[in-house]
Model the fold of this input.
Amino acid sequence: MFNIEQALRLEKGQVLVTPMTNPDMVVAMRNSAGIVTDVGGMICHAAIVSRELGLPCVVGTETASRTLRDLRIAQVIELDMQLENGVVRAYRARVKLSFKYQRAE
Done:
């Protein structure tokens, strides 16, 4: 997804795959089954909104919007976190994805 019109066509239960998210995409994010972005980190827009909505989210993939097609399922298999004084300092997730892959051109 590269613009708001495309994001609004996202059907309920589909995974939103986009270079990055912005506040205009929250309706589409709410309808999605998960979010995958090319850029971002723990405090990017997609990560924050996905935590609020309870959605699986993978950020910082660099090429997902150009290489993933028909993404169906994103399932977190394992999650490790490093906490300091009750604050998450680092985390690592193992995610199981179901998708079709096309080589970036």
